[in-house]
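Example record

The entry below shows one chain as it appears in the dataset: sequence first, then structure tokens.
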Amino acid sequence: MVYLTGKDVDVFITTENGEQATWVYSAAASSSALGLAGEDPNVLVSGALLFATQLSASAFPTASGTMNMTGVDVSIGATDEDISYVGFRQVTKAEIKKETTVALTRKKQDTLWDLVFNSARFGISGASAGALAAFPGLEEPTVNHGYRIHVQLKDGTEAIAVPNAYITGHTVSVSVDGTADETLEFMSYITPKFANSSSANTAATSGSQL
């Protein structure tokens, strides 16, 4: 487990879709929680908040929905299966898959993370704004499922990208005499990417990596 503070790293969230960013509407702005996004994440969608830019192979994201970040917790573990043998107390650990968990904590400033957790936990699909929809999660995973979490040291010497991460939890802690904090948890079974170059960390996931 590695715990980093907001002053140590820059955090960017992208989709796994090269054409679409994720925007969400507040309840007052639209009856639909998931908003439509244009291909350019810098073009404001009226009444919407930007959560994740589209995946770009040319550079690290220039915008993100993770302002006021106070903590980043990165954990890498493994899922094992125990194999028992007659006459042995010890068991064999058969590795099934690796798992990476990222927990982002920030000062709560709006309802953005609430809406994303309720409406777009598994990422978005669609190659055009008119066809944009949230993955329901009850389907076979594809290379476009989930979000990609980029954690880069402020000095730019090291970066980790966790691809195809699903949102698994959202918590809000309220203090009587302070600002509320909220944590968004992501988990992925795809091997993280460690590189300094933006092209290595933003390359699309291949089918063989699933």
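Notes for this example: The longest helix spans residues 112-119. Residues 35 and 108 are 21 Å apart (CA to CA).
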